[in-house]
Structures are given as structure tokens and as C-alpha cells.
Design brief:
The complex is a heterodimer of chains A (183) and B (417). Chain A has one domain: Beta Polymerase, domain 2, CATH 3.30.460. The radius of gyration of chain A is 18 Å and the shape is globular. In chain A, 36% of the residues are buried. In chain A, a hairpin with a 4-residue loop joins β4 and β5. Chain A is 21% helix and 25% strand. Chain B has one domain: Cytochrome-c3 Hydrogenase, chain B. Chain B has 18 helices and eight strands. Chain B has a three-stranded antiparallel sheet. A three-stranded antiparallel sheet of chain B has the order 6-7-8. A two-stranded antiparallel sheet of chain B has the order 4-5. The longest helix of chain B has 29 residues. The chains are: A alpha/beta (183), B mainly alpha (417). Chains A and B meet through β3 and α4 of A and α2, α9, β6, β7 and β8 of B.
Chain lengths: 183, 417
């Protein structure tokens, strides 16, 4: 496993100086938050660069950050959340791209901040594996991917009107949202 | 009635239906394509996979997989259950190798919470993961051969799998849905009896697998049904995010046990079987050889496994042993605190993946410092591998679809989550 963190960040800064919003390191994993406008160009660059060669997109998902770190945790030791960390979660959603380089055996995570009714460009033209993963994200969070070739629900029925992994969706489901057959 | 104008190739048929023309004769019955709905209740789809297949005669023109018939919302359940409570749910993902799923999940949580596990526990987990891989590949061996018509081998493979489940029974206490791994280690220590059972199993394995091999690999019908069927190129496999035996069946030596070593895999000596053909037969050979490598790993683990504890001395994060909870005050308090308030990992996010029997099984966990995960995403190999289905079946015969599904080896519990 080659540590690509430094060359990767250098190259990104060189090519797209204003694309990176922040870089987080936690447990030897690098998460880069990039601006939405640069998503396609950064992804294309990461895939096509000979040294980095992030040729495999392992997963696309999203996280619903509404209410994140808002409630005090009922717990005996105090967790102090610095202002800087809280600022990273100022939007409702973050879309997460889990990239893997087959050549270097290295993973990075790209994240894009997204407001509730914003859309995001699809990366399925860059990595084919994004197709189903984005459909799943759309199904679970209602995030619309612009230019997606086939944006249907992945798991839930097409006529289902909610998005189950949003935080406001109750764990027990919504009674009557899935009509039973009449007899 | 309004005049309907059809632009489809099946215009004449629809027109005839519309006119209720019973004297309609089709010049060439094979000039039109037909849509066949395969599944979700079809014995060859290994669960509730539904495929919509467009056929031209017997040739598949296109295919659309339809998932979600076994969707139980595990990611939502995870957000409402503590880190410990979610372990049994991971059993139900890939229900053919529950032991490996537990290991994958607990490794992710340990990475998040920063728990170092003991060496003995690491070896026990490797043994668990390899037993799970063997058990899963035996089901593959049996069912895939059955799908192409070799019925005997199903019984033989399940007979061999039964011995593995006997081992799991003694090791974990249950035969299926084991929930054996715990955050910070494993539930119980491995007894010498289990060690002896595994050693016996390892000893008799080569002969038994050779029996199975002889039955199919010199069988011309089997080879003809598998060779050159369901081809996928190297580039497509990478682009579609395929992992596991599919990727290794098209010539890419990608195995997370070697590429991003976890547990003690970097101390063990094993090969990664790779075949270049990219067809059903190549995937069959990959899995068959992987089983032999798993046996090698088991053998080395039995030799190298050290004595010691199976849980690290971290009482604030790791559940104490049950007998101590009943007899010692301190352990009782810790047990109470952990069950009621959880392990509270720091704010952050991690992703950890292992090489499961079907490919890369990963868990992405976002923590807000609370007892439950804020978000837990399961990166399941079956889901990602099934995305290849349209590519794999295109241009093949309809009867090859079952062989191709068998070679992809999806488990719908995992694909649908």
C-alpha cells in the first residue's frame, strides 16, 4: 500500500486550487470535502491521472446531517465539539464517494456538501459502478443526480413517496405508505 | 374506437389484437423479441432476485435486474440500535457466511473506537473468516453445479458443509447466524476440542474436494455449459466495481487480504488464485482454488495461534465476560454502563472492508459520539456484483442465465440489505 495522501493533495491543489473545502484525517483515512462545481473535473482527473489512478469507485452514499451534534449526549463524559468541526456539517446532506486505486491499493473519500433541494451531477459517466449506487442514494435520501441515465428507485416500490434514510422518516415506517392489496 | 398508431416492431401483432382479428398469421415467429420475467420466485435465482429479460428467440438481448424484494432496512435499523445490538443483524446480510460478516462489522467499529484486539482473538477471527469462506463456497459449488444439471454434487457439497457447521456449532454454540465476534474480540475462547475438529477437517479436506472435482471437471457437459459463457472483460469488471472471484476470474489479482492486510493475514502464506478467461468456468476455478488456500490458512493458524486472552483490557469499551459480571462488582458496573450508554466512539467516520467470500464487504460508519451510529452504510459485494448482470448475460442463451447467476453467486440478503 503506497501512501498517496501527500501527492494526491499536492496535485489537487495544483490543478484545482479552489476546489478543496477541507481535508480531514481520522484513523489513517483521508476525507476530502470538495465543492460541487468541481466534482466532475476532480473525479475525471483522479481517474485519469497515471500516478493516482483511482480507477474503481467502490461506493456512493449520502449522510443526512440534519440535527447532527445538536442534542447533548446523555452520557457521563463531556464531549466538547470545537466550532471548526461543527462548521463542516452546516448543510443538510453530504454525498460520499469511496474511491479505490487498484494500482496503489489506496482509498480516499470524497465528499460534497448539499442542501436539501439541491441536485448533484452524476459520476456514472466516469465510473459505471456509480449507476446503481446513485440510484440507491436517490431511493434512500431523495437526492437527485443530474444526467443519470436511469434514476429509478433501487429498493422501494416506484410509487413510494418517502425516502427512508432521511432522519425525519420514523423507524417504524409510515402507516399506509405501502398500500396492501384490497380484497 | 380511436385509431391507434404503433411504431414498435410488434405493430402488426398489436394491431391484430386491437382489431380482435382471429385470422391473424405471423410470417416469421422469430422476428420479434419477447420479454420474460424471471423471478423473484425462481429456484435458480438463489433467493429473490428478479430479472426482466428481453429475448430474441433463445438469445438474450438485454436484461434488467430488479432488486429490493428482501429489503429490510438494516441501515435504518443500525441508526436506532447500539453498536453491540447491530452484530446479530450482520449475520442476516450474507447468511451463507455470517461469521465473516461479524468480523467485518466489528473491525469497522474497532477502527472507529480505537480498540486494539489481542493476538489470539485475531487468529480466532481469521479462522472464523476462513471457515465462513469455505462454507459459502461449498454452497456455491453445490448450487452452481445443480443449476447446470449436475445434481449429485449438491448433496456432496452440503455433506462437506455440514462438517463445517458442526465445527461452528462447537466453536460458537450455534450452527447458523453465529454472531460470534464481539467488539474488541470474540464471544468465547476457542477450545482445544475445536482445534482438533478443525485439524481433522483440514486433514480430510483434500480427498473430499478431489472427489467433487473429479465429478465435474472431467464432465464434458459441465465444461461445455460453463466455458466461454458469461464473459466479462478486465476493464468492464473494474469499471462496474466488481470484486471478489469475479475480478480474479478475469485476470486481476485483487484480494484485500493481500492488498490492504487486516488481522494477521500478512503473516500467513497463501496464494491468490487468478484465472484470465473471465467466463463462468474461470470463476468456478477461482473459488475451487480459494477453498484450498483457505485450508492452507486454517492449517497455519492452528500452528501459529498463541495462548492468551480473547478480549483486550479496555473495560470502558469491551464487554466483560459473563461469569465475571455475575461475581465481580467492577465488571458488573462496566457491563451496565456499556449496555445502557454504549461505547461512545469519538466523532468521526471510518470505512473498513474485508475480503468476504463474495468480494469486498465494507462498513462505512459515521459517529456523532453517541451510543448509536449516526449513519451506517453497508457496501455489500453482492449488490455491486449484480450490477454486472446485464453485461454478463447479453448475447448468451436463456439457459445460460442460470449458470451465470450461479457464477456471480449473489446472496440477496446482502444485496437488498
Amino acid at each position: 500500500m503506497n501512501n498517496l495522501r501527500e501527492p494526491l493533495l499536492n496535485k489537487l491543489n495544483e490543478q484545482f486550487s479552489s476546489a478543496i473545502e477541507s481535508v480531514n484525517d481520522f484513523r489513517d483515512e483521508t476525507t476530502i470535502i470538495i465543492k460541487k462545481d468541481f466534482l466532475i473535473s476532480v473525479c475525471t482527473f483522479l481517474r485519469d491521472d497515471n500516478e493516482l489512478a483511482f480507477d474503481s469507485l467502490r461506493d456512493v452514499t449520502a449522510v443526512d446531517y440534519s440535527g447532527f451534534l445538536q442534542n447533548p449526549i446523555p452520557h457521563d463524559h463531556d464531549i466538547h465539539v470545537p466550532e471548526k468541526i461543527q462548521q463542516q456539517f452546516d448543510t443538510r446532506f453530504q454525498v460520499v464517494y469511496n474511491l479505490y486505486s487498484m494500482k496503489n491499493h489506496f482509498r480516499i473519500r470524497l465528499k460534497v456538501k448539499l442542501e436539501e433541494d439541491e441536485t448533484i451531477p452524476t459520476v456514472s459517466s466516469i465510473w459505471k459502478s456509480a449507476n446503481w449506487a446513485e440510484r440507491e442514494t436517490y431511493d434512500m435520501f431523495g437526492i437527485k443526480f443530474e444526467g443519470h441515465p436511469d434514476l429509478r428507485r433501487m429498493y422501494m416500490p416506484e410509487e413510494f413517496e418517502f425516502h427512508p434514510l432521511r432522519k425525519e422518516f420514523p423507524l417504524m415506517g409510515i402507516p399506509g405508505s405501502l398500500p396492501l392489496p384490497k380484497h | 374506437m380511436e385509431k391507434v398508431i404503433f411504431t414498435e416492431p410488434s405493430e402488426r401483432i398489436l394491431q391484430a389484437l386491437n382489431d380482435q382479428d382471429t385470422s391473424f398469421v405471423l410470417d416469421n415467429a422469430l422476428e420479434h423479441t419477447m420479454v420474460l420475467n424471471m423471478g423473484p420466485q425462481h429456484p435458480a435465482t438463489h433467493g429473490v432476485l428478479r430479472l426482466l429479460v428481453r429475448l430474441d428467440g433463445e438469445t438474450v438481448v438485454s436484461c434488467i435486474p430488479d432488486l429490493g424484494y428482501l429489503h429490510r432496512g438494516y441501515e435504518k435499523i443500525a441508526e436506532a440500535s447500539s453498536y453491540h445490538e447491530f452484530i446479530p443483524h450482520t449475520d442476516r446480510l450474507d447468511y451463507l457466511s455470517p461469521l465473516a460478516n461479524n468480523v467485518a462489522y466489528t473491525l469497522a467499529v474497532e477502527k472507529l473506537a480505537g480498540i486494539e484486539i489481542t493476538r489470539r482473538a485475531q487468529f480466532i477471527r481469521v479462522i472464523c473468516a476462513e471457515l465462513a469462506r469455505l462454507a459459502s463456497h461449498f454452497v456455491f459449488l453445490g448450487t452452481m453445479c445443480m443449476d447446470v444439471g449436475a445434481l449429485t454434487i449438491l448433496l456432496w457439497a452440503f455433506r462437506e458443509r455440514e462438517k463445517l457447521q458442526d465445527i461452528m456449532d462447537v466453536l460458537t454454540g450455534v450452527r447458523f447466524t453465529n454472531s460470534f465476534a464481539r467488539i474488541g474480540g470474540v464471544a468465547n475462547d476457542m477450545s482445544d476440542e475445536v482445534k482438533k475438529m478443525i485439524a481433522d477437517y483440514v486433514k480430510q479436506f483434500p480427498e473430499k474436494i478431489h472427489e467433487c472435482e473429479k465429478l465435474v471437471l472431467s464432465n464434458r457437459i459441465f465444461i461445455d455449459r460453463c466455458e466461454g459463457v458469461g464473459y466479462i472483460s478486465k476493464e468492464d469488471a473494474i469499471a462496474f466495481g466488481a470484486t471478489g472471484p469475479i475480478l480474479r476470474g478475469c485476470g486481476i489479482a485483487h484480494d484485500l487480504r493481500r492488498d490492504q492486510p487486516y488481522l494477521v493475514y500478512n503473516e500467513l502464506d497463501f496464494n491468490i488464485p487468478v484465472f484470465n478467461e473471465g467466463d463462468v468456468l474461470a470463476r468456478f476455478y477461482v473459488r475451487l482454488n480459494e477453498m484450498k488456500e483457505s485450508i492452507k490458512i486454517l492449517q497455519q493458524c492452528l500452528e501459529k495461534i498463541p495462548q492468551g486472552d480473547v478480549k483486550p483490557p479496555e473495560p470502558k469499551k469491551v464487554l466483560p465476560n459473563k461469569e465475571k459480571v455475575y461475581s465481580k462488582m467492577e465488571e458488573l458496573i462496566h457491563d451496565f454502563m456499556l449496555i445502557n450508554f454504549g461505547i461512545n466512539p469519538p466523532i468521526g467516520e471510518v470505512y473498513h472492508a474485508i475480503e468476504g467470500s463474495k468480494g469486498e464487504l465494507g462498513f462505512y460508519i459515521v459517529s456523532d459520539g453517541d451510543a448509536t451510529p449516526w449513519r451506517l452504510k453497508i457496501r455489500s459485494p453482492s449488490f455491486c456484483n449484480l450490477q454486472l448482470m446485464p453485461q454478463l448475460v447479453k448475447g448468451n442463451m436463456i439457459s445460460d442465465i442460470v449458470a451465470i447467476i450461479g457464477s456471480v453467486d449473489p446472496v440477496m440478503g446482502e444485496a437488498d440489505k
